[in-house]
UniProtKB/TrEMBL annotation:
Segment forming the signal sequence: 1-28
Region (Disordered): 27-47, 618-638
Record keywords, A-Z: Calcium, Hydrolase, Metal-binding, Protease, Serine protease, Signal, Zymogen
InterPro entries: Peptidase_S8/S53_dom (IPR000209), Peptidase_S8/S53_dom_sf (IPR036852), Peptidase_S8_Ser-AS (IPR023828), S53_propep (IPR015366), Sedolisin_dom (IPR030400), Tripeptidyl-peptidase_I (IPR050819)
UniProt feature coiled coil, ranges: none
Protein name, entry field: S53 family peptidase
Residue intervals of the Peptidase S53 domain: 241-638
Needed co-factor(s): Ca(2+)
Pfam families in the record: Peptidase_S8, Pro-kuma_activ
SUPFAM superfamilies: Protease propeptides/inhibitors, Subtilisin-like
CDD domains: Peptidases_S53, Pro-peptidase_S53
Highest taxon listed in the record's lineage: Bacteria
């Protein structure tokens, strides 16, 4: 896909130049110290201090873009906003680095400060950050803190007693520091697979090939169990899992011009890399009526080694095998929606924030991707506050270069069940990414015939009746951020945020695991590796589905779009189908193997409702907190 390249645009470069000129003036009268943003540990108020820390410190100091974050945001906004004179006139990677890499003078000043405190430094070639190592005393001296040992939330960590700072002469030069607080910061896949993350799983065979095609009136249960009605209605069995042809028939019906994503590159990020991914995706495509990848159509960018590979998060581990299912879903969902698109997979060396953040550096600097789908996130508004601006710098670089970042909005609804108060999840709540929420979706032979927001309650069979077991089981993330301001493009579209926070999601696609996608993956069954299929969902499905259909839009237009949100909101969701809840039942019946593998352990029956859980989120006309502007259709593409 050929990119449009930025010409010298006086308005944008003038903004950068003004910011650069103002830097010296700002530094002329700085405060006594320059606090590093978001560097105070958020858990300090409920931690127990155990005494001074000893030993070594390993940290990363992230540098501000030249001219500052506001100058970079101005460029990203100008090239991404319809009606701007610079709309879609994107920077190349080399132009970005020439304009926004921290200057040699800034790097020299930062390394001089750190080395003066006795720390060893290693500078990133693109001047994004400086890695530092040394003793606790050296770090205390450099950052103006006292690093102590603390206990909190079942962890024992080293962390500073307050905000870290730089010398006043470096005010604004550092946007983040990671590593002074050793509390591990993990992200999780936004998938819902009904099995242990490292174990194999198979669907029980009692399910429909399409939505509503199987129900207790026309398909008996495998063990003769009589299933009652729910509120006087016979519910269908859940679909077995939608395939690529079914998903395209649902979302892409009416497309003209043979669009399939050819010439577009979709990037995918996750932790680790499945050793069988290409073979699995090819077998799945062939078995479900699609074409496998052509030579070179699928590629990977992998780190030299992986860390934190086990499944014990209390011991700072991530669970390598558990991420393989996430990657499988992402790759197969994108290929299903855009069979002609190139897919380039970027693996993080672990599930920790800095390692996933590193994937964005590789994506932006390679500059071959047009859109990036990310099906992972943290719990609550900020994954780790210390890295907030570092994440934003990566998203803004991508937007400036014409790369669109999309994120799953999360699988815990408004998070009130887990966190006691409604919250959105980060990075989906960042204003410089597109947040993709989840729907419960009825796909029949006629296409997509019903859709509602995904918020699930669970009923179990007890004494011959359906009995409420879990009032909120899972659902698409959404609501209003508690600490990230509502962006201007949402205000301009008339979105009223009750707390002034960023509204989530922006759009939505099928995410409910009860109406999820059938995927094929090599899994471990009783100690042996074997390929099999199963149904999976979560907003981890919604994000790659949206990235895939947007790849067709990029193909049709001949170039990327950068940040998609100004376009989506300026048209009030034109090309998206408003989700109203019509054409779908109250829920569906799930039939599962008790052991997740076969009939030897018997069967378990449940009802999973569609939009049946009570949360602060709603489905309504226009934009709403469950589905955003709705789900993408052919009108979004053309």
């Amino acid at each position: 896909m050929r990119r449009k390249v930025l010409g010298v645009t006086l308005a944008v470069l003038a903004t950068v130049a003004a910011s650069l000129a103002g830097a010296g003036a700002a530094n002329a009268a700085p405060p006594p110290k320059a606090p590093i943003p978001n560097s105070t540990p958020g858990w300090l108020s409920h931690a127990t201090k155990a005494g001074p820390a000893n030993g070594a410190v390993s940290a990363r100091v992230y540098l501000a873009p030249a001219g500052g974050m506001d100058a970079l945001a101005a460029v990203a906004s100008a090239v991404s906003t319809p009606g701007s004179a610079q709309y879609r006139e994107f920077l190349t990677a080399s132009q970005y680095h020439a304009t926004f890499d921290a200057s040699a003078a800034t790097v020299a000043a930062v390394t001089g400060w750190l080395q003066g405190a006795g720390l060893k430094t290693t500078v990133d070639p693109s001047h994004r950050y400086v890695d530092v190592t040394g003793g606790v005393g050296n770090a205390n001296k450099a950052f103006g803190v006292t690093i102590s040992t603390y206990s909190h939330d079942g962890l024992t960590v080293h962390a500073p007693d307050g905000a870290a700072s730089t010398p006043d002469s470096l005010a604004g030069s550092v946007i983040a520091v990671d590593g002074l607080d050793t509390t591990p910061s993990f992200v999780d896949p936004q998938t819902q697979k009904p099995a242990p993350p490292d174990g194999g799983f198979r669907n029980a065979p009692t399910c429909g090939t399409t939505y509503g095609s199987a129900n207790p009136d026309n398909l008996a249960t495998p063990d003769g169990t009589v299933l009652p009605q729910l509120d006087g209605k016979t519910l269908p069995y859940s679909p077995c899992g939608y395939t690529g042809p079914q998903l395209r028939n649902a979302y892409e019906a009416g497309l003209t011009g043979g669009l399939d994503g050819t010439g577009v590159t979709v990037a995918i990020t996750d932790a680790y890399a499945s050793p069988t991914i290409e073979a699995d995706a090819n077998k799945y495509a062939t078995d479900t009526g699609d074409k496998p990848f052509t030579a070179g159509q699928f590629s990977q960018n992998l780190p030299n080694a992986y860390t934190n590979v086990n499944s014990n998060k209390s011991n700072h581990q991530c669970g390598m095998a558990g991420w393989y299912g996430e990657e499988t879903l992402d790759v197969e969902a994108v290929h299903a929606m855009a069979p002609g698109a190139n897919i380039r997979y970027y693996a993080g060396k672990s599930c920790m924030d800095p390692d996933l953040l590193d994937t964005f550096t590789r994506i932006n600097d390679e500059n071959v991707a047009n859109i990036v789908t990310n099906s992972w996130g943290g719990t609550g508004d900020v994954v780790k506050p210390a890295l907030f601006l570092a994440y934003q710098a990566a998203f803004l670089q991508g937007a400036a270069q014409g790369i669109s970042y999309v994120f799953s909005s999360g699988d815990n609804g408004d998070e009130a069940t887990r966190l006691a108060t409604p919250q959105t999840d980060y990075p989906a709540s960042d204003p410089y990414v597109t947040a993709v929420g989840g729907t419960s979706t009825a796909i029949t032979a006629a296409g997509l015939t019903g859709e509602t927001g995904w918020q699930t309650s669970k009923y179990v069979l007890k004494d011959g009746a359906w009995t409420l077991s879990t009032s909120f089981l899972y659902g698409g993330g959404g609501g209003y951020s508690s600490n990230i301001a509502e962006p201007q493009y949402q205000k301009d579209a008339g979105i009223i945020s009750p707390n002034g926070g960023r509204a989530v999601p922006d759009v939505s696609m099928d995410g409910d695991p009860t109406t999820g996608m059938l995927v094929g993956q090599t899994q471990t069954f009783t100690g042996k590796a074997a390929y099999d299929t199963y149904r999976i969902g979560g907003t981890s499905l919604a994000s790659p589905l949206f990235a895939g259909i947007t790849a067709l839009k990029i193909q049709a237009s001949g170039a990327g779009f950068g940040l998609l949100n100004p376009l989506i909101y300026s048209t009030h969701g034109q090309g998206f189908t408003d989700v109203t809840g019509a054409g779908i039942d109250a829920g569906a019946i799930r039939v599962d193997f008790v052991n997740g593998l076969d009939a030897s352990g018997g069967y378990v029956y449940s009802v999973r409702t569609f939009n049946g859980a009570t949360t602060t989120q709603t489905v309504g006309p226009g934009w709403d907190t469950e589905t955003g502007w709705g789900s993408a259709r052919a009108g979004w593409v053309q």
